[in-house]
Structure formats: C-alpha cells, structure tokens
Amino acid sequence: MECCLNGACPLSEISWLWYAIATVVSFFIGAIWYGVLFSKTWMKAIRYECACGADVINGEKCTCKSNGVFLTMLFQFISTAFVVFMYFTLTSISIWLSVIVVVAVCAWMKSNLKFQISDWKRYFTLALIDVGYFFIVSVVAVLFSLI
C-alpha cells in the first residue's frame, strides 16, 4: 500500500530535519504560551486544582509531588509532533489544504469549547488562549514545511 497521490508521495516531500526543528519549536512555544504568558489566566479559566489543595491561581505553591509531569510532557510532545506532521504532509500536497485545515480545526475547537463552558468570559478566555496556541503552532508548522 502506497501513500502516493497521482504519482507523488507527500512523505517523500518532507524535510525531516525541518520537521524535527518545527516540532521542538512548537513544543517550546507551548511552554512559553502556557507557562509564562498565560499561565495564571489559563489556570483560572480552566479552574485548575492542585492535588494538594493549594490555591495556585492566587499565588500559593503547589507542594504536592507531581509524579506524572514527565509523562504528561512526553504525551504533549508526541501530540505536538503529530500536529506538525499533519501540516508537513498536507502542505506537501497543497498549501491551501493546510490553510483549510487550520481554519476548520480552529473553528471546531472554538465551538467545542462553548459546549463545555457556559460562562462567556471563561469561554472567550479559553478560546483565545487554546485556539490561539493551536493557530500559532499551525502557522509555524506550515511555514517550516515550506522550507
């Protein structure tokens, strides 16, 4: 079984070096996005609860042992790699296909959040943070895939 369309194979068009770089860059954008720029706003909007009961939103340190941090970051890195891979594959077929997917997934994420959150302020906050991050990572992946 081949993954080729009309004699062209999208996977053979991928620059694996630029793919790896785009994945790492996108992962670090997420670390800055959720860890520095919007950490408190995001935690407040999702109503983050520390397992030990610390009120992290109001500045208390979460002192409980975080056993799953490495595993969580590993899963996030793998997820980021899949998203970047999707755009590298789509862009090798057509840049317009990538643009359509960026818009479609952002719209889907935004509307899906509304089913989960009834409060408009929380909804807009999370939509801007989460959909904004996905949009930026998508743009980074598409741009790197063009190199």
How is this fold's topology laid out?
Elements: H1 16-37, H2 39-46, H3 69-93, H4 95-116, H5 120-145
Helix pairs in contact: 1-3, 1-5, 2-5, 3-4, 3-5, 4-5
Q: Can you tell me about this structure?
A:
By secondary structure, this protein is mainly alpha-helical. It has one domain (14-145). Helices cover 70% and strands 0% of the residues. It has 5 helices and no strands. The protein is globular, with a radius of gyration of 18 Å. The model has no long low-confidence stretch (mean pLDDT 90).
Summarize this structure briefly:
The protein has 147 residues and is an all-alpha fold. It is built from five helices and no strands.
State the distance separating the first and last CA atoms.
28 Å
N to C succession of SSEs: HHHHH
The largest pleated sheet is described as: none
Total helices: the number is 5
Envelope shape? globular
Helical content class: over 70%
Low-confidence region ranges = none
Strand content: under 5%
Structural class per helix/strand content? mainly alpha
Domain count: the total is 1
Spatial extent as radius of gyration: 18 Å
Notable characteristics:
single chain; 147 residues; mainly alpha; 5 helices; 70% helix
